[in-house]
Amino acid sequence: MANSKYEYVRQFELADNLLPSTWLVVRIDGRGFHRFSQSHQFEKPNDRRSIDLMNRCAIEVMKDIKDIILAYGQSDEYSFVLPKSTNLYSRRASKISSTIVSLFASNFVMHWSTYFKEDKLQYAPCFDSRTICYPNDQVLKDYLSWRQADCHINNLYNTTFWTLVKSGMTETEAEARLRGTFSKDKNEILFSEFNINYNNIDPIYRKGSTIIRQKTQVTSVSPRTGEQVKRIKLLPTAIHEDIIGQQFWMEHPELLEK
Questions:
Q1: What angle do CA 45, 61, 94 make, to 5 degrees?
Q2: pLDDT reported for residue 225
Q3: Tell me, what DSSP letter sits at residue 230?
Q4: Under a CB-based contact definition with an 8 Å cutoff, are residues 23 and 82 in contact?
Q5: Average confidence score pLDDT of the chain
Q6: Residue 65: enclosing H or E segment and its boundaries?
Q7: Residues in the annotated binding site for GTP
Q8: Which residues define the annotated binding site for Mg(2+)?
Q9: Domain Thg1 C-terminal spans what residues (predicted)?
């Protein structure tokens, strides 16, 4: 549209560049995923197929957008962290947010059948997104701690709730039973009534999924010689560890050096 008389419409585009030298986090959330999970008959309290699919989508996003250094996901949400030094799309919020959420959603559809097999996708999933600036390392760590704490709180409640329902209670009765209870009360219900030690539940459910780039040996075929060649590459990999304490950050100091 160079030198076109219509080019004046560009004046209506508002600048939305994010603050320089700040951490950027793009958080995506499933829109209407309660209905989506019911329509597709997700297992309760957790559907491993859905979690693995969400992780796959996040890994594919990180493969495409190299600036992302870490992602954290639980339930129907994922947070993608870009370093203070990033200049991706000139730090334009709308470009960054829309690109990441659209990549995630398209991969969700593309890889659905890999994880759900013969269970067909009934309708298109939808995700919303937002981009937030965090001013320093501590605030970023607190943000990620908040999301993992949320994962624990929600999973403990859902595990107890659906254990009660599967034992014969109605959903209304289970909700009433848990109303006003604390974490220790839910742990006691699980252990004393159902012999379930919550701490023994798979960490992928209790701690969510953290994706970082780890050194991984990959094998490829040399186009010149036809021989197999082994190389070490940094590939996005899902781990399920505590990220609230200092141990994780001590083991991965490179994450905060970007």
A1: 105
A2: 76
A3: E
A4: yes
A5: 95
A6: none
A7: 29-34, 75-76
A8: 29-30, 76
A9: 139-229
